[in-house]
Amino acid sequence: MKSNEFYKLTAWKYFSRYVLLFHSQDGITVRCFTSGKELRLNNRECCAGHWIKVFDSSNRTNFATAFEFNNCYPQSNYDNRFLNGRPDKMQMEIIKLHGLKESERLIQLSKRPFKLDKSTLDCIVDEYKLKFNELIKIKGNPWKMINN
Question: What residues contact residue 31 under an 8 Å CB cut-off, 6+ apart?
Answer without folding.
Answer: 23, 37, 38, 39, 74
